[in-house]
Amino acid sequence: MIDLIKKAVLTGIGIASLTKEKLEEISNDLIGKGKLSEQEGEKFLQEMQKRAEESREALKNQTDKFVESALNRMQLAKASDLEKVQAEIEELRKEIEALRIREGVAGMKEGVAGAEKPPTL
Prior knowledge:
Distance between the termini: 115 Å
Number of helices: 4
Number of domains: 2
Structural class: mainly alpha
Mean pLDDT: 79
Radius of gyration: 34 Å
Oligomer: single chain
């Protein structure tokens, strides 16, 4: 009997959309009508809450995959892609600065880069 009730609840109402309060209401209603004992009602409630959570998680995962697939088809960059590019840019900035410093030191040894030598007399 309890299996039939579970199937009816799962089929009749999208399990992922059921809140704890709604499940408690269904369980209490079944207990009140004498279809379930207190113990069966508690077990029913726990199992339905577990299934509802699993269904919500599965729905979330499917939604995440769908969105990721859509973004890939649109060829939009993800936040992680942008973070990688930003890190690469920062690394290149550091390398450029290091090169400027080295050239500046080398320029001091040779004189100011680009400056004309004074005429010789």
